Amino acid sequence: MRKYDMVKVEERQIVEWTCSICGLDFMDDELERQEAFHCSQMGGYTSVFGDGAEIYIDMCQHCFKQKLGKHCTII
What we know:
Layout: H1 30-35, E1 37-42, E2 54-59, H2 61-68
Antiparallel strand pairs: 1-2
């Protein structure tokens, strides 16, 4: 048998969302928000960012294309 107590659950809400490179505000533009690129990674033992570091980046489609487009495979 299991018995449970109610616990307080923390809720997070996005209040600001911008491109990490150019600062484009995704909150004001639904179409840009749909094309936004988000990447998150946890740094491992030999990471140049540090072991256990949480790494995040949000990029608009324009910055993504400018910075990484030539490295992408587009089908």
